Amino acid sequence: MFSKSIKTVIVVKSSTVLFCRLKNATEFSIIDSIPLQDFLLEDSQIDLSEAVRPDTNVLMLIPAYWIGSDIFELDATKPSIARAFIERKLFGEFPDFKEIENYYSCQFTRTKENRRAVYTCFVQEAAFYAVSRFLKEKKISPRWVSSSALMGQAIVKGMARDEKPRNYALILVYETHCHIYFFSQGFFLFSRAIELPEAVESEDDVIGVLTYEINQSQYLYSQKAGAQIDQLFLLSRKPGHAEKLSKSLEQDVVDIGGMYKNQGTVFPAEVGSASLFTRPQWSNPGSYIHFSQKSVRVEQAWKPVQIFAMALGIVMLAALTAEFYYLNVLDNSNKGKASPVTTVDTRQTLQNYTSAVMSYKQE
């Protein structure tokens, strides 16, 4: 599990950057809070708390609206070709973001017409790159960059009634605001943030606001995706919202909050959109889309090769040890008996080992 290595979590909100520390399975503390605007000033002098130490195993969560997405038709099946294609597209659209090659993800998919395509999501916000450069100067290197929207995408796919990619919306309701994440063909498309009324006489007022905004959002979705939303999911701190919304919208709203009971502590409400997700969800970046620097991706790609090479090396060492034991120990017990002596061609053995590793790597 990644949770054993993540000790620092950086949460970027609309106006604040929070530095958080994980002490153990249940303790989570905010150790520093810096206005986002400070990272954007050329002569800004930001003094981080001494509790914020250099770290490489860092999870950084950014707002959903910082993430852009697109689907391109591409008649290819090799990831290397897809990445080269996507990077050319991104460099053309964002020439000022030289680091964008580290902050995108792509997956093969199909268009509505069933043609081969590649889906990509990427960090499109200039403020992110300003924060990222500052962190690099402080030797704080986020190993995983993601968003609650991308965590929500993994959850929605897991909860979907149909294995076929569909069109979904995930509604996250908090005390004072609401986030709606929209997914087309199973992939994140866009998000909306909605402020809830501060003074309400009853929950019905909140449901009324949500109903209006969701209906407006569904119209916006149809304009962007050229399709209707097939299913609505809800994650809320308060019970009963799903049933009331289903009645008000005249559309089934699936409450997915119950599946998170007894799964670990959630973020405190201060961290915003991530606060409804449990520790097992956000502490395993491998389970949802995230962005990593090229060096990290290369390291992850080589890990299976390294494991295979180590396993093969152990097997071959065991075989050579057994052969050495047979030739030098058992043979001594049979002195005077004529027996053919087998010699080990060390060079050939090493060549066979190297060939096996390279063959696995190519596969």
Report on this model:
The longest helix has 37 residues, at 294-330. The model is unreliable at 338-344 (pLDDT under 50). The protein has a 5-stranded mixed beta sheet with strand order 3-2-1-4-8. Strands 11-10-9-12-13 form a 5-stranded mixed beta sheet. A 3-stranded antiparallel beta sheet has the order 5-7-6, covered by helices on one side. α8 (294-330) packs antiparallel against α9. The chain has helices at residues 36-40, 79-93, 126-137, 148-159, 203-225, 241-249, 279-282, 294-330, 346-362; strands at 8-12, 16-22, 28-35, 55-61, 67-73, 104-110, 116-123, 140-146, 168-173, 177-184, 187-195, 231-236, 253-255. The protein is globular. 37% of the residues lie in helices and 24% in strands. With 363 residues, it is α/β, with parallel strands linked by helices.
Arithmetic mean of pLDDT: 80
Walk across the major sheet and give the strand order. 3-2-1-4-8
Helical proportion, percent range:
25-40%
**Class based on secondary structure composition and strand pairing:** alpha/beta
The arrangement of helices and strands along the chain is: EEEHEEHEEHEHEEEHEHEHHH
Give the CA-based shape: globular
Rg result: 27 Å
Annotation, overall tally of beta strands: 13
Strand count, sense and closure of the main sheet? 5 strands, mixed
Q: How far apart are the first and last residues' alpha carbons, in Å?
A: 26 Å
Query: Spans with pLDDT under 50 lasting ≥5 residues?
Result: 338-344
Q: What is the count of helical runs? A: 9
Q: DSSP strand (E) fraction?
A: 15-25%
